[in-house]
Design goal:
two-stranded antiparallel sheet; five-stranded mixed β-sheet; Nucleotidyltransferase, domain 5; single chain; about 240 residues; 8 helices; alpha/beta; about 35% helix
Length: about 240
């Protein structure tokens, strides 16, 4: 788990990221404690945004594909607010990355349908229409060839199956072709950990849509969380 203060006038981190190992098991109360420690490190006492790997509606977790099942039904906004003593608003992590890319990065001033996809442990998605977020799309869980798409095409699949960058790119391309048929985006922005090495695999991708690496790379989630933290009410 990591945190940093963000200058929202520029979309840049105003201090180095600070990391604390995710507790095991990653239960709600244990992770709330880590959130407090991260905030205390920076001495921040104001409003806070948190990017979270699950479907979030009105601050409550509705899914836990890569989390302990105890998160389902948890009011994360309330938990983190009560534990930290700060007003906290939580947003899906891919939606957070998308918000950052749309405001400051590769999707800035782009009209039409823009899709932000993060490739990491799973595949996160942020869908935007003329700059407006369609929240909680969870396109990594589309069924593709009879399987959950992220099980085949997430960055973790490349590591797990020891695929070359080109072999993995073929899987990503297959997934992207399917997504393009469904949504006809004008731009796809690829982010997450794999975006740091986009030069190794993105040249092997050929789909009927412009595909570019995220401009904010792996900092997009923190920047997007800060955007949500600046709002007067929950985003979704």
């Amino acid at each position: 788990m990591k945190a940093a203060p963000v200058d929202l006038s520029t979309g840049t981190l105003s201090d180095d990221r600070y990391k604390i190992a995710t507790p095991r098991p990653a239960l709600p109360e244990a992770m709330a404690d880590v959130v407090c420690r991260l905030l205390d490190h920076f001495g921040h006492g104001g409003r806070v945004g948190v990017a979270f790997p699950g479907v979030i509606r009105q601050g409550t977790t509705l899914s836990a594909a890569n989390l302990d099942p105890s998160w389902i039904g948890t009011d994360v906004d309330a938990l983190f607010t009560e534990t930290s003593g700060r007003e906290v608003h939580v947003v899906n992590d891919a939606d957070a990355a998308g918000l950052a890319e749309i405001r400051y990065g590769a999707g800035r001033d782009r009209a039409g349908v823009v899709l932000v996809l993060t490739f990491g442990t799973g595949i996160g998605s942020g869908l935007f229409v003329d700059g407006v977020l369609v929240p909680n799309t969870e396109l990594g869980h589309l069924e593709l060839d009879g399987k959950d798409a992220e099980k085949r095409a997430a960055a973790s699949a490349r590591d797990r199956e020891q695929l070359s960058w080109e072999e993995w790119a073929r899987r990503v391309e297959h997934y992207l072709r399917y997504v393009v048929r469904l949504f006809t985006p004008s731009l796809i922005i690829v982010g997450g950990g794999a975006s740091r090495k986009a030069d190794k695999w993105l040249p092997h991708i050929d789909v009927d849509c412009e595909v570019v690496p995220a401009a904010l790379t792996n900092e997009a989630g923190i920047v997007g969380a800060a955007i949500v933290g600046s709002l007067d009410k929950p985003l979704t």
